[in-house]
Design brief:
Elements lengths: L2 H8 L16 E3 L14 H14 L4 E4 L3 E2 L17 E2 L2 E4 L5 E3 L4 E9 L6 E10 L2 E8 L14 E2 L4 E4 L12 E7 L12 E2 L4 H7 L4 H4 L2
Parallel strand pairs: 1-2
Antiparallel strand pairs: 2-5, 3-4, 4-13, 5-12, 6-11, 7-8, 7-10, 8-9, 9-12
Length: about 220
């Protein structure tokens, strides 16, 4: 059984990552693909305001988008360059104001955490390890506030519904518009305090399997 199917089977028993819970009725799709130039040319504060205004105008509480989205926004960030450009987003972004609280969706423990202060990176990030019907998997929470890391240690038990973090502001969140990067991960591949959230187009088949659509766990 794959991870996405397992989560769907148990979805009703999970706690929401947000309060109130996110649904298809109180969220809107927030496109950041290469074909959308809506935010181009705007300064940082203007981008942040435009995102929140769009959410409010739709009568929603959050903007959600991004799984397997091909984005051009990373072209200006050295972190995503190299032998070939990383442009495929393998998590989901949830745009909400800085300070929004986040809660563990099910019992687990802290796998690892870090404060990745490189422009365009996660900033503060927490990775939890979970077990479900004998299946081990992980949830990643990126672009957090710095105080979200206070008191953490690897292996610390986390209960379902426990507040684990809050969305961080610029610039400590990697200097992005305030949002949560939420990702499912089967195999951490030996990584600690980090896991790619953006990959190369030629790597999509592997990461689609290792990091399935997190909306299965995020939306009720």
């Amino acid at each position: 059984m794959n991870l996405e199917t397992l989560i769907k089977q148990h979805r009703a028993a999970f706690t929401s990552v947000f309060d109130p819970a996110l649904t298809t009725g109180n969220t809107i799709y927030m496109e950041l693909s290469s074909t959308n130039n809506e935010l181009e040319g705007l300064g940082e504060s203007e981008q942040d305001a435009a995102i929140l205004q769009r959410i409010a105008a739709a009568g929603a509480i959050a903007g959600i988008g991004g799984y397997l989205e091909d984005r051009s926004v990373y072209r200006d960030t050295d972190l995503f360059q190299g032998d070939s450009e990383r442009s495929i987003h393998i998590g989901v972004d949830v745009f909400m104001p800085a300070g929004t609280a986040l809660y563990a969706p099910l019992d687990g423990e802290v796998h690892s955490f870090a404060n990745r202060q490189v422009y365009g990176d996660y900033g503060p990030v927490i990775i939890l390890r979970h077990r479900l019907d004998g299946f081990v998997f992980h949830t990643l929470y990126g672009h957090l506030s710095e105080d979200s890391l206070t008191g953490l240690e690897d292996g610390k038990p986390i209960a379902a519904g426990e507040k684990i973090a809050q969305i961080g502001p610029r610039p400590v969140n990697g200097n992005w518009a305030p949002h949560l990067h939420f990702q499912l991960i089967r195999d951490m591949q030996g990584k600690h305090g980090d896991y790619p959230g953006v990959v190369r187009p030629g790597e999509v088949d592997f990461f689609r399997e290792n990091c399935p659509d997190p909306n299965a766990l995020l939306l009720t």
